[in-house]
Amino acid sequence: MTNALPIARDARIGPFTAGRIAYGCWRFAGSTPDEATAKIEAALSVGANLIDTAAIYGFGDPGFGAAEEKLGGVLKAQPGLRDQIVLVTKAGIHPPLPYDSRAENLIDSCSGSLKRLETDRIDVFLIHRPDLLASYDEVAEALTHLRAAGKIREAGVSNFTPAQTRALQSKLDFPLVVSQPEFSAVHTDPLTDGTTDLAQELGLALMAWSPLAGGRLVSGQRGEPGSVEARVLAVLDEIASENGVGIDHAALAWVLAHPAASFAIIGTQSPDRIRDSVRALDVKLSRRDWYAVLEAARGEPMP
Q1: 3-state secondary structure string across 115-141
Q2: What residues form DSSP beta bridges with 13?
Q3: What is the reported pLDDT for 3?
Q4: What is the percentage of the chain residues whose pLDDT exceeds 70?
Q5: Does the pTM of the predicted model rise above 0.85?
């Protein structure tokens, strides 16, 4: 029996199969057309075919959708790319409201995303953050309408608590397929708040956003002495050295080694770093390695 935790190269997201390193477009809006194309092509070249964006990404004076428009430009210029990717986008964040998940708004947001993305369907459509003033009946109404109309293939949630996810699922006659929480070696709440448990119970693909803690878990970072980052980086550095990889690879591998974590979303703007990120899939983590990282994050041994 091997001591290494299994890290498969692909995972399921509803009816789709995608590489477990996903590419996120949070900072994509500032790309030139050539830069945007290079990033998407770099991701696809290493099997990172799950592309995650949102209507709010690139929000500013022109309004919504700057990142979607940039991605849409890539897809329009190379129509063959559309069928190579699993396309995820999100709706519901509307500064300064700050959230609006009324049925009419979600439907309008999806239509805007389709236009900007130069496509006729969204593979997976997520509610970006829970709108506490929108009833689950109304959110379900919008998702049901969009799915029946063929504008979205599947639906999911981002930043929802397990109870909120369950409540929305109770109003739908089709299964949600995604839960997208913040999850990293320094943000381990999903392990204890029920998020990873519910993902396994309902068969949700868990897409971890900020798996590198916003750039705090990469080579060259040390963290403030005594901080959670410093403790975790020290352990990740040992794992990285043993595997001949960078700290970022070890940090991504730690997330992906959890049985609920289907995907880790990276957001680097460097094509070389995008291609290099898949080295995380070859990291050999033992059970002791994994728990050592968690203990460093907790600041104490497991009970």
Answers
A1: HHHCCCCEEEEEECCCCCCCCHHHHHH
A2: 16
A3: 84
A4: 99
A5: yes
